[in-house]
């Protein structure tokens, strides 16, 4: 029979050897997040704003079709809205002192918490919607190019996006009342929790761990992860299906010009699907980081080594860093690819900074006699007589 007290003492003694290193690692990871995250967010905001300016300029000049970029505009606007709201929260938290020794987030902050949770969840879903819309529109353009050009207008695409946003908001609040007892329960998401429990404001890591365990206990990550991940997974399956159908369609038409005409579009779609896969992985990472630490926070856990050691805490901070830095990096890469990989948009963007050439040409003065000039005009005009009149005269 095992001696539980002896085993517990052995575990504590074993953990104490690495506790200082683990605490230092946690502090370094959060220091890295606080240093890199604002830079990545500002860079993503600038690149997406640059993309919107390029698209608006090209559309107003008549060089870009609006319906081709509506989905990417939707994604860029959603990312920029998320950056602005998260940045406001980050700045507010940085300059605000804690009202309570245990809970670092200000007490009168319920509405901002709901806003942050709603923003991030809708950002996950809107990004998935945009990728799926790009895949579907590409398939429609390859399968029925004439109908895509004539019947599908930009106003129809915009109405579809507005309807999709209303549907996502309705789905979000329906899931809140059905699965979460009428309360937003997404603080188990490590990215969302990062903005509401600032590690750097706590005097000791123990205070931060108490706050973290309270959030993990009161906000189960399993239900919120299920609600958050189901729509992106459905969109992802639809996107993969569209990509397979496009590949099949182009394979059958590989001897025609349509294959060469849509090759660049398929290349962009493949890039978007790769980024879509990364986005789904980062979304799952934001929730998976809370699962290993649940045993650490559970006082009834039978796994004493996981309960007493700092390993789960280090894993949680690493998952959090990967999720939050990766998400802002995804925003940056998306805007960069959409601006500079698309040849038509790239040309339109660089033409905006070229000097405008004048339509007037400077010529030397005509020194001919007025009679010669009038005779030259008459002869020039006579050469421009339509052939129909000539035929009538000779018939």
Automatic annotation (TrEMBL):
User: How is this protein named in the record?
Assistant: G-protein coupled receptors family 1 profile domain-containing protein
| Record's bilayer topology term | Multi-pass membrane protein
- Give the transmembrane region(s): 35-57, 121-140, 160-179, 233-252, 273-290, 310-329
Taking every annotated instance into account, which residue ranges of this chain make up the domain G-protein coupled receptors family 1 profile? 49-278
Choose one Gene Ontology CC annotation of this protein and give it.
Answer: plasma membrane
Alphabetized CDD domains for the sequence: 7tm_classA_rhodopsin-like
SUPFAM superfamilies attached here?
A: Family A G protein-coupled receptor-like
Q: Which Gene3D superfamilies match?
A: Rhodopsin 7-helix transmembrane proteins
Mind listing the UniProt keywords for this protein, alphabetically? Cell membrane, G-protein coupled receptor, Membrane, Receptor, Transducer, Transmembrane, Transmembrane helix
Q: Quick check: keyword Lipid biosynthesis in the entry?
A: no
GO MF entries: G protein-coupled receptor activity
PROSITE patterns, sorted: G_PROTEIN_RECEP_F1_2
Query: Would you say which domain of life the source belongs to?
Result: Eukaryota
Location in the cell: Cell membrane
Q: What is its main location?
A: membrane
């Amino acid at each position: 029979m095992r001696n539980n007290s002896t085993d517990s003492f052995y575990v504590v003694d074993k953990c104490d050897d690495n506790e200082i290193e683990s605490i230092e690692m946690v502090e370094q990871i959060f220091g890295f997040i606080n240093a890199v995250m604002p830079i990545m967010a500002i860079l993503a905001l600038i690149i997406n704003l640059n993309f919107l300016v390029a698209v608006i300029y090209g559309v107003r000049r008549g060089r870009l079709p609006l319906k081709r970029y509506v989905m990417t505009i939707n994604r860029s606007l959603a990312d920029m809205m998320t950056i602005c709201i998260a940045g406001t929260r980050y700045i507010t938290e940085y300059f605000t002192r804690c009202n309570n020794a245990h809970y670092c987030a200000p007490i009168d902050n319920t509405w901002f918490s709901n806003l942050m949770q709603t923003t991030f969840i809708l950002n996950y879903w809107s990004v998935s919607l945009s990728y799926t819309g790009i895949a579907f529109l590409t398939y429609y353009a390859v399968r029925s190019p004439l109908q895509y050009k004539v019947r599908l207008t930009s106003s129809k695409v915009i109405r579809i996006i507005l309807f999709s946003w209303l549907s996502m908001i309705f789905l979000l609040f329906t899931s809140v009342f059905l699965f979460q007892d009428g309360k937003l329960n997404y603080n188990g998401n490590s990215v969302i929790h990062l903005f509401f429990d600032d590690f750097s404001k706590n005097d000791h890591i123990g205070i931060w761990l108490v706050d973290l365990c309270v959030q993990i206990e009161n906000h189960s990550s399993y239900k919120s992860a299920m609600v958050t991940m189901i729509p992106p997974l459905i969109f992802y399956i639809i996107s993969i299906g569209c990509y397979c159908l496009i590949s099949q369609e182009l394979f059958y038409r590989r001897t025609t010009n349509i294959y060469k005409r849509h090759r660049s579009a398929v290349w962009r779609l493949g890039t978007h699907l790769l980024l879509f896969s990364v986005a789904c992985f980062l979304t799952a990472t934001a929730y998976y980081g809370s699962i290993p630490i649940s045993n650490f926070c559970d006082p009834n856990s039978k796994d004493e080594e996981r309960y007493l050691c700092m390993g789960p805490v280090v894993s949680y901070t690493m998952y959090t860093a990967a999720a939050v830095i990766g998400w802002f990096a995804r925003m940056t890469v998306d805007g960069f690819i959409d601006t500079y990989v698309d040849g038509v948009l790239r040309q339109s963007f660089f033409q905006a900074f070229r000097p405008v050439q004048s339509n007037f040409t400077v010529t030397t003065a005509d020194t001919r006699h007025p009679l010669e000039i009038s005779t030259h005009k008459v002869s020039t005009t006579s050469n421009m007589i339509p052939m129909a009149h000539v035929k009538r005269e000779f018939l």
